[in-house]
Description:
Elements: E1 3-5, H1 8-16, E2 23-25, H2 34-37, H3 51-56, E3 61-65, H4 71-78, E4 85-89, H5 96-108, H6 114-130, E5 140-145, E6 151-152, H7 159-165, E7 169-171, E8 187-188, E9 200-204, H8 215-221, E10 226-230, H9 232-236, H10 242-254
Parallel strand pairs: 1-2, 1-3, 3-4, 5-7, 5-9, 9-10
Antiparallel strand pairs: 6-8
Helix pairs in contact: 5-6, 6-10
Amino acid sequence: MRIASLVPSLTELAVALGLAPLLVARTGFCVHPAEVVKAIPKVGGTKDVNLAKLRRLAPTHVLVNVDENRLDTVQAIEAWPQRPRIVVTHPLGPEDNLALIGQMVAEFGEVDGVAARADALRREFEQALAATDAAQFTPQRVLYLIWRGPWMTVARDTYIARMLARVNWQTLPAVEGGPHGAARYPMVRGDEDWLAEVQQVLLSSEPYAFGPQHIDAARALCPGAQVRIVDGELISWYGPRAAAGLSYLRGLAAG
Length: 255
């Protein structure tokens, strides 16, 4: 097997399952665990994959995600004469990590040690889910910002919004974006009536690198809200980081 991962969290999951020796390609955003991935060739970004370089690396399996990768990228790979197996993932909420682990076992469980590592990850995550009950937390209306210029947020049927819902934080606007497409990450103009209802503005550290210099601009969107910078990797990455992400959210909600 020769595995190419075009999704940062799937790269981290593959390493956690013991598949690092089989990884032959990653994106430039696949940065964890750093000591392992630095030896794996980069093939561009999640949205702008260098298909020629990827093809030269001759993967037998390519890991992709519906939200993070472009459909035309997947279609181009499918058109190769020596087509690799494309493993399509689409976790829509924290509970889906269990199915994702199962999917990886179905694909790579024959590799020595993968099944045992998957069982350990599954147990850890089941414990994290059981410890994160929305009923334990005070309801909050939040605006989770992932981009600026324009401002962009998340629909309620995204993985991020459903992670936040585990601590009773409901994202605004109260819309769903559907199974795929741009509507899952709506733009915010700044004049929407619902902005006055926001109690917390969460500035994600990724994909846009929000920092302290952006707090005033975010506060201007929702003058009555608390503004916090949050760890976007812990909230948005599925796989082995998800259990820690739930723990992180419990800490934020308790504070």
